[in-house]
Amino acid sequence: MNPSELRSTLALAGIFGLRMLGLFLILPVFSLHARDLPGGEHAFWVGLSLGMFNIVQAFFHIPLGALSDRIGRKPVVVWGLGLFVVGAIIASSHDDLLWIGIGRGIMGAGAISAAISAWVADLTREQVRTVAMAIVGGSIALSFALSLVIAAPIYRLINLNGMFMLLAVMGFIAILAAIFVVPSTPIKPPSQPVSLIQIFLRPELARLNIGVFILNATQVAMFFVVPRLLVQAGFPLADHWIVYLPVVLISFILIAPLLIYGEKKQCLRISVLLSIGFLLISQFIFIEAVTVLMIALALLTYFVGFNLLEALQPALVSRWAKESKGAALGIYNTTQSIGLFAGAAIGGWITEHHGEHAVFILGGALLIGWLIIAWSMQEPPAKPKKSPLGSVPSSS
Questions:
Q1: Sequence-distant contacts of 353-356: CB under 8 A, at least 24 apart
Q2: Which of 30, 75, 101, 271 has a beta carbon 3.0–4.6 Å from 52's, enabling a disulfide?
Q3: Domain limits at 74?
Q4: Distance from C-alpha of 79 to C-alpha of 82, rounded to nearest angstrom
């Protein structure tokens, strides 16, 4: 990347990561905190409140992504971050499931993931675009990993209301970065408009959409249970970071060679299948996990697959969807949001009615189905040869 591409990519990855931290930071502590709230004895209502961010977001990804194709990326991103800040302030001002759910719903209405991904594509040349998208995708994994490490200490220090106010402050910082750091791009309507149905039905993109749904549904459902397993194994909530931190750091070290090899040798299909395999193995380990060591092993196996997929899949979408990027990425992020909501709601219901192990059994079944669907995927088109360092990024 040239300096302009790198600066813009890192800034957008930071904005994306800060917003995703708004989703993930609450995840490790919410199910335990909610027990003391009215209605908190019902795991389904807890899961519903937790997942409100995602289900509302699912309704706005496609229209906001398509809107960014017409009016530009920056106005959509700034508006969405503004809603994120307002929703966080509302959630911080109340201590009951209803208002927390309303606040998280407003936070989710600022669905800017597609606009950010399309903005990255606008500001980078095609031959470096996969790396740029992988950096943005990696910010999701980094936000998730960071939330697991810092959530409990921050919760102990400022409680849940303070955590929401912290998210509002970070959202305001992200607005400033979007306005003053990232350059605007010219609006270029597609020369040959493609309908949403055509984008949705493309087999290459459909596989990725199904995959991101299953990935995030199993993720949220799993972390509805994992904090409880650690508590049962003798680890209080405040000490969960002792397990999460080494697991996260080791997983990032392990995925680096897999990501580089898959991109360099043009065998991204194998990387995707291998990642799904890691996720599947982790579910089986969780079923038998009764000690902290086994839980840590399951988490490490899971994170290797999860972090690799969060870096690979957005990059693959950008490679397959060259037209109407905002709309195509809107569909992708919509299925992601639906998966996050489904994982929270279904995970809570299954935990309440069938026990914690049933969550991992269902997760394993979904991952087997994903592995079957992904098996027939093709390698994405080869990247063009590198152009001179200072060339202007293409918006194709």
A1: 356/225, 356/228, 356/229
A2: 101
A3: 3-184+195-374
A4: 5
Residue type at 2 in one-letter notation:
N
Query: Cβ atoms within 10 A of the Cβ of 395, count?
Result: 16
pTM given for the model? 0.74
Provide CB contacts within 8 A for 30, sequence distance 6+: 46, 50, 160
Residue 111 DSSP label? -
Q: In the numeric block, which tokens belong to residue 195? A: 């309908």
CA distance 31 to 265: 43
Is-contact 81 112, C-beta < 8 A? yes
Q: Record the tokens describing residue 374, joined without a space.
A: 């992904």
Where on the phi/psi map is residue 266: left (φ > 0), alpha (ψ -120 to 50), or beta? Answer: left
- Secondary structure letter of residue 35 according to DSSP: G
Asked whether 72 and 184 are in contact (CB, 8 A), the reply is yes
Q: What is the pLDDT of residues 119-158, one digit of tens each?
A: 988 898 877 776 787 788 778 777 877 887 788 888 889 9
How far is Cα 220 from Cα 226, in angstroms, rounded to an integer?
Answer: 10
- For residue 338, count CB atoms less than 10 angstroms from its CB and return exposed for 0-12, middle for 13-18, buried for 19 or more: buried
How many helices (H) and strands (E) the chain has is answered by: 14, 0
What is the CATH classification number for the domain harbouring 132? Answer: 1.20.1250.20
| Number of domains observed in the structure of the chain | 1
Residue 222 lies in a domain: yes
292 domain residue, yes or no: yes
Q: What is the share, in percent, of the chain residues with pLDDT greater than 90? A: 28
Which amino acid appears at position 49 of this protein?
Answer: S
Cβ neighbours around 172 below 10 Å, total: 15
